[in-house]
Amino acid sequence: MKLPALPIRRTESTEKKTKARKAMSDSLYGGLLVTPAMIVLLFFGIFPLLYAINLAFRHVDLTAGPAVPWDFVGLDNFRYALNSKIFWDATGRTLYFAVISVSLQMVLGISLAFLINQAKWFKGVIRALILLPLASAPAAVGMIWRYLYDSEFGVYNAFLQALGFAPLNWLGDSSIALASIIIFDVWQWTPFVTLITIAGLQSLPKEPFEAAALDGASGLMVLRRLTFPLLSPVLTLIFILRSIDAARLYDPIATTTRGGPGSVTETVTYLLYRLGLKQFRIDQASAMALIILFALVVFSGIVLRRLMRQQAERARSD
């Protein structure tokens, strides 16, 4: 006679071991997934940063030959950077460029996002076309814009002459060279602001807007009281990313003006390239780069802290 199978009783210790084994396997699996990204970050991010910090505290002149030791000089490179008029002039130009360019990108990008979000036809086609400037190689786009700005056979001067205006030396005139770079940068990165803002608009909850419509709120009031407050985290993130990217502008300068005419369009990043890779003073260039990095970290921290404070106040009020 076959006896019925008895149910297996799990003791408390067995269940604890099973949970511990499962938790260990989950953590190990998560660690394996993160490991490639951590290796890339360590190799391309942390190690170059530590190497630059080491160079910033030493005297490194590559023109002196490999036999000259890299002596420790303390804060001498930072003193040179803070007392350098060239560095502060490039910083001022970079700040001016970032303020104008990012402001135009935010205004144009948010406006286009609202228009596209309200469109009823061809939304996918419009988004695909807007993505083209971002999908193109920066160096190739820079070369195209260099020929568009050409003073002899450029498209823009041909358009001006067709309208009866005199041609302009877009990249060779010191009064408009930086403005030409700003136009180029606004064209290239406004789609980024537009696409991220569209994604933010589509993720907003519908209930507050339906309640506002029932209450008879005007469109301006809805924008001021609902849309922009709910979009503030997305817009703040866009603003920080674009500000950081504008501060490290290099590709448009390298492919169009190369810092000229004179030094009118020489930003901090191009100055670091010229000082470190052309004059071979990578110690001074490293010190300047660390100063700019510190300023960007402080700026990002202040903006993010303000955003987090606003979000905490909104959560308490709700």
Structure description:
The structure is a single chain. By secondary structure, this protein is mostly helical. It has 13 helices and no strands.
Characterize this entry briefly.
With 318 residues, the protein is mostly helical. It is built from 13 helices and no strands.
The CATH superfamily of the domain at 85-279 is known as: MetI-like
Name of the CATH class of the domain at 85-279: Mainly Alpha
Radius of gyration: 27 Å
Structural class: mainly alpha
Helix amount, in percent?
A: over 70%
Counted by DSSP, the helix tally is: 13
Key structural traits:
mainly alpha, MetI-like fold, about 75% helix, 13 helices, about 325 residues
Annotate the secondary structure layout.
Elements: H1 12-56, H2 76-82, H3 85-117, H4 123-130, H5 132-135, H6 138-148, H7 155-162, H8 177-202, H9 207-214, H10 219-247, H11 251-257, H12 268-278, H13 282-317
Helix pairs in contact: 1-13, 2-13, 3-8, 3-10, 6-11, 8-10, 8-11, 10-13, 12-13
